[in-house]
Amino acid sequence: MQEIIKVLFSGFGENLRIFILTLAMAIPLGLIITFGSMTKFKPVRWLTRTFVWIIRGTPLMLQLFVVLYAPGLLFGIPMRDRLVATLVAFVINYAAYFSEIYRGGIESIPRGQYEAGAVLGMTRRQVFFKVVLLQVIKRIVPSMGNEVITLVKDTALARVIGVAEIIMVAERYTKQGLIGPLFSTGLYFLLFNGILTLLLGRIERKMDYFRV
Questions:
Q1: How far is CA 6 from CA 11, 24, 60, 180, in A?
Q2: Cβ 102 vs Cβ 34: under 8 Å
Q3: Are the CB atoms for 11 and 164 separated by under 8 Å?
Q4: Could you report the per-residue pLDDT of 11-60, keeping only the tens digit for each?
Q5: How far is it, in rounded angstroms, from Cα 134 to Cα 90?
Q6: DSSP summary character for residue 208
Q7: Residue 209 and residue 4: Cα distance in Å, rounded?
Q8: What is the pLDDT of residues 96-126, one digit of tens each?
Q9: Could you tell me the pTM of the whole model?
Q10: Of 87, 86, 79, nearest to 29 (Cα)?
Q11: In the chain, which ranges are E strands?
Q12: Residue 154 contacts residue 60 (beta carbons within 8 Å)
C-alpha cells in the first residue's frame, strides 16, 4: 500500500506541474489578451475577441488533441513532448478565460475615476496602476479563485493525450482489481482544493480593507 501511495503521489506531481506552470503563464498572457480585446484599434480588438470566443466555445479536450496533432498533420512538425502540448493547450485556454475576468473587472470601474485622475494631472497609465488596479484585483479575486479550483480538476484531462497524471496511474491499479487507489485519487484532489480554498479565502479577507 505504501508503494501505491508513493506512485500516486508521483502521478499527482504531474498534475501539480501542469497547474503551477499554467497559472504562471496564463495569468500574464490573459492580461495581454485583455488589452487586445479592449484596444480602440478595431482589427486587433476583433481578432482578439474572436480568438477568445473560439477558445471558450470549444472543449479543452479538443484543444489538447489539436495542439498535439495539428503541427504534425498540417506542417510536418510533430509535437513530440506531450507535456509541452498539454501546457500549450492549458495556457491558451485559461488565458482566454482569465482575459474575460480581467476585462469584466476593468470595465466595472466607473469612468469617473479616470476623469478625476485626469483632472488631478495624472496620466491614464498612472490612474490605472495607482487608482484602478487594486479595485480590479479585489473584484476579480472570487472569479479567479473559481477558475483556479477548476484548473486543479482540469489537469486530469492531460491523461487523454498520454500524460501520466494521477488518474491514469490510479486506473492502472483499478484494472488490477484494486479500488483503493481510485478513492485515494479523490482525496488528493480534495485536500489540494481544500488548501487552495483556505488560501483564496484568506486573500479575500486581506482585501476587505479596500472598499469598492
A1: 9, 27, 29, 14
A2: yes
A3: yes
A4: 999 999 999 999 999 999 999 999 999 999 999 999 999 999 999 999 99
A5: 27
A6: G
A7: 46
A8: 999 999 999 998 888 888 788 778 888 878 8
A9: 0.91
A10: 87
A11: none
A12: yes
Residues in the chain: 212
Three cell numbers written together for 15: 498534475
Query: Tell me, what DSSP letter sits at residue 132?
Result: I
141 close to 147: Cβ distance less than 8 angstroms: no
> Grid coordinates in use for 38?
479592449
End-to-end alpha carbon distance in the chain: 52
Task: Give the residue carrying C-alpha cell 483503493.
Answer: 180
* Residues 152 and 189: beta-carbon distance below 8 Å: yes
Cα–Cα distance, 99 to 73 (Å, whole number): 30
The answer to whether 113 and 132 have CB atoms below 8 angstroms apart is yes
For domain 2-108+142-209, the CATH class is mainly alpha
Q: b/e per residue, 117-131, with b = 16+ CB within 10 A?
A: beeeebeeeebbeeb
Cell of 84: 509541452
Q: Which is nearest to 105 in space by CA: 23, 41, 22, 34? A: 34
How far lies 39's CA from each of 33, 34, 44, 53, in Å?
10, 9, 7, 17
